[in-house]
TrEMBL record:
SUPFAM superfamilies: N-terminal nucleophile aminohydrolases (Ntn hydrolases). Belongs to the gamma-glutamyltransferase family. This is Glutathione hydrolase proenzyme. GO terms for biological process: glutathione biosynthetic process; glutathione catabolic process. Pathway: Sulfur metabolism; glutathione metabolism. It holds the Pfam family G_glu_transpept. L-glutamate binds at E371, S412. Cleaved by autocatalysis into a large and a small subunit. The keyword ATP-binding does not apply. The active site is at T331 (nucleophile).
Length: 504
C-alpha cells in the first residue's frame, strides 16, 4: 500500500491519491489535494486564503507550518466592509465581506514551502491534477453545490465572482461542470515562477490595484513582507497518549489542549451517557471561560503556551469543571499518510470568501478580517502585521513516542469541540476512525447547547435540565468537518461535509 488520503470531497482525495500513485510522498499528495480543493470545494477554501500544516515523519516530533493570514494596517478610514447572514437551517451566523475584509494570504507561500522542504516530485507534476480539474471542469457533489448555494450572496457579490460562479445568471450546481481556466493558468505560472509571482510579481500588482480600487486595506508591500513560520506544536498529555496540536498565536490548539487536560481525569462509562455529554458540555463551558480570562489578548506573548503547564491555574479551572459536572445526572481539512511513515494533517480556509477575485487568476480572496470568531476584540482591533489567531488545529496523537492518529477539522468555533470529541471516540470509546468521525456531536457556546440526533433521549432530557438546547434534525456541517487517518491506514471522512477516503 502506498498510502491513504482523507479529504472533504471525493475529487480532492483522488487528487492526492493520484500523486501517491505517481511516486509522490504524503507531502506531495497533500499539496496536490490542497491546490485541487479550490476547484472541488470552492466554497470552503481558496489560494487566496491561508492555513496550517502539521508534518509528521516517523517518530520525530511533529512540525507545524503556519501559513495563516497576516493583519494588514488599516490604511483607510472606511474600507468596503459589510455584513451578510448565512442560514444553516437550525441556526444563523453573520459574516462580513468586501475588499476591506481581506487579510494577507499565506496559502501559496505555505504549501510551496512544504513542497520545497519535504516533497519528492517536481511542482509541475504535483499541481498537474489541479490544473486538469480546472481546465477540464468537474461536477461538484450535491453537498458542495449546496455550500455554494448557502453562500450565494458572497459568490454573486461582484461582477467577476458572478462571471465565474454564476455564468449566464445561474449559480453553479451539481448538474453542470465547473471550469476555471484562469485558475489553471495561475497554477502553471506558479509551476514556473514559484511564490515570487504571487507575492512580488504580476499577481501582487493586480492584488494591489484591485484593493485600491475597491476600498481594501491590503497592499503589495504587505504581500512582500509575508513569511511562513515553522512552529513547535504544543504537546498535551491525555491519559496514556501525547497530543500535538497548533501552538499560539493560533487559539484553537491551546483551547483543545486545555479541554483535554480537564477531560483527562474523567473515567468515562459509555458513549452517549449523561456523564459523557455532561463532561463534554462542562469542559466546553469551562474552556470558554478560560478563553475569556486568559487567552484573548495574550496569544502573541512569548511562551504563552506554558500556561497549560501551570498546575495552579489548571487545578482551579478543573475544580470549577468538576463542581459543575457533579450537578449532572468555511474551511476544509485533509489528512495523508504514506508507506514511508510520513503523515500530514492540513487545514486551509478562505473564510467564506470576500467576493473579490484576483483578476485573471480565478482566485477569490479571503474575508478573514470579517469573521467575528477570529476578531473577539472587535473588527480592525488587531495591531498590523501580526498573525490573525485561528481555531484551525491540525492534530496528531502519539503513544509511547510513536504516531497513532492524524486529524483536523473545519467549522469555525466548532473546530475544537469536533476534534476533542473525535479524539475521545477513538481513544476512550475505542471506535474505529470512520465511526469516531461520524458519531453524533454536541457543542456548547454562550449558554446554549447544540445537539445532533443520535444521543439517548434520557441524555437529551438531562441536557435540557441545565441549558437552553437546540436539537438539530440531522447531522449538520455546523458541527465541523473532521478528516482523520490512523497509522493502520484506516481513514474517516466526515459525512457532514462530504468527506471521502481513498487508499492507494
Amino acid at each position: 500500500m502506498k498510502g491513504v488520503v482523507a479529504a472533504g470531497d471525493r475529487l480532492t482525495a483522488e487528487a492526492g491519491a493520484e500523486i501517491l500513485k505517481a511516486g509522490g510522498n504524503a507531502f506531495d499528495a497533500a499539496v496536490a489535494a490542497c491546490f485541487s480543493a479550490p476547484i472541488t470545494e470552492p466554497a470552503l477554501t481558496s489560494a487566496g486564503g491561508g492555513g496550517f500544516l502539521l508534518a509528521v515523519s516517523g517518530s520525530e516530533r511533529p512540525l507545524l507550518y503556519d501559513f495563516f493570514v497576516d493583519v494588514p494596517p488599516k490604511r483607510i478610514e472606511s474600507p468596503e466592509f459589510y455584513p451578510i447572514e448565512v442560514d444553516f437551517g437550525d441556526t444563523k451566523q453573520t459574516f462580513h465581506i468586501g475588499a476591506g475584509s481581506v487579510a494577507v494570504p499565506g496559502f501559496v507561500a505555505g504549501l510551496l514551502r512544504v513542497h520545497t522542504e519535504r516533497g519528492k516530485l517536481p511542482l509541475r507534476e504535483v499541481l498537474s491534477v489541479a490544473v486538469e480539474y480546472a481546465k477540464r471542469g468537474v461536477k461538484l457533489s450535491k453537498l458542495q453545490a449546496s455550500f455554494i448555494k448557502l453562500l450565494e450572496p458572497i459568490f454573486t457579490a461582484t461582477p467577476e465572482s458572478r462571471e465565474l460562479y454564476a455564468p449566464d445568471g445561474k449559480l453553479i450546481d451539481s448538474e453542470r461542470e465547473f471550469k476555471n481556466p484562469d485558475y489553471a493558468d495561475f497554477l502553471e505560472l506558479l509551476s514556473e515562477e514559484g511564490q515570487w509571482a504571487f507575492y512580488e510579481g504580476e499577481i501582487a500588482d493586480e492584488i494591489d490595484r484591485i484593493m485600491r480600487e475597491r476600498g481594501g486595506i491590503l497592499r503589495k508591500e504587505d504581500l512582500e513582507r509575508y513569511k511562513v513560520v515553522e512552529r513547535k506544536p504544543i504537546k498535551v498529555n491525555f491519559k496514556d497518549y501525547e497530543v500535538f496540536t497548533n501552538p499560539p498565536p493560533s487559539s484553537g490548539g491551546i483551547l483543545i489542549g486545555f479541554t483535554l487536560k480537564l477531560l483527562s481525569r474523567v473515567e468515562f462509562d459509555e458513549w452517549g451517557s449523561v456523564l459523557h455529554a455532561g463532561a463534554l458540555i462542562e469542559s466546553m463551558r469551562t474552556t470558554q471561560k478560560f478563553r475569556k480570562d486568559f487567552v484573548n489578548g495574550h496569544l502573541h506573548e512569548e511562551g504563552f503556551e506554558g500556561i497549560l503547564n501551570r498546575d495552579e491555574i489548571i487545578d482551579s479551572y478543573h475544580n470549577l469543571f468538576k463542581n459543575k459536572l457533579n450537578l449532572w445526572g468555511n474551511t476544509t481539512h485533509i489528512c495523508v499518510l504514506d508507506s514511508e511513515g510520513n503523515g500530514v494533517s492540513v487545514t486551509t480556509t478562505n473564510g467564506e470568501g470576500s467576493g473579490v477575485l484576483i483578476p485573471k487568476t480565478g482566485v477569490m480572496l479571503n474575508n478573514m478580517l470579517g469573521e467575528e470568531d477570529l476578531n473577539p476584540l472587535g473588527f480592525f482591533k488587531w495591531p498590523p502585521y501580526v498573525r490573525l489567531p485561528s481555531m484551525m488545529s491540525p492534530t496528531a496523537v502519539f503513544r509511547d513516542g510513536k504516531p497513532l492518529l492524524l486529524l483536523g477539522s473545519a467549522g469555525s468555533n466548532r473546530i475544537r469541540s469536533a476534534i476533542v470529541q473525535t479524539i475521545l471516540n477513538y481513544l476512550c470509546f475505542k471506535m474505529g476512525v470512520a465511526d469516531s468521525v461520524s458519531a453524533p456531536r454536541l457543542h456548547y457556546e454562550n449558554g446554549e447547547v447544540f445537539v445532533e440526533p443520535g444521543f439517548p433521549e434520557s441524555t437529551i432530557d438531562e441536557i435540557r435540565r441545565h441549558y437552553r438546547t437546540t436539537l438539530f434534525k440531522e447531522k449538520s456541517l455546523f458541527f465541523g468537518g473532521v478528516q482523520s487517518v490512523d497509522f493502520k491506514f484506516s481513514g474517516g471522512g466526515d459525512p457532514r461535509r462530504g468527506g471521502f477516503v481513498v487508499r492507494v
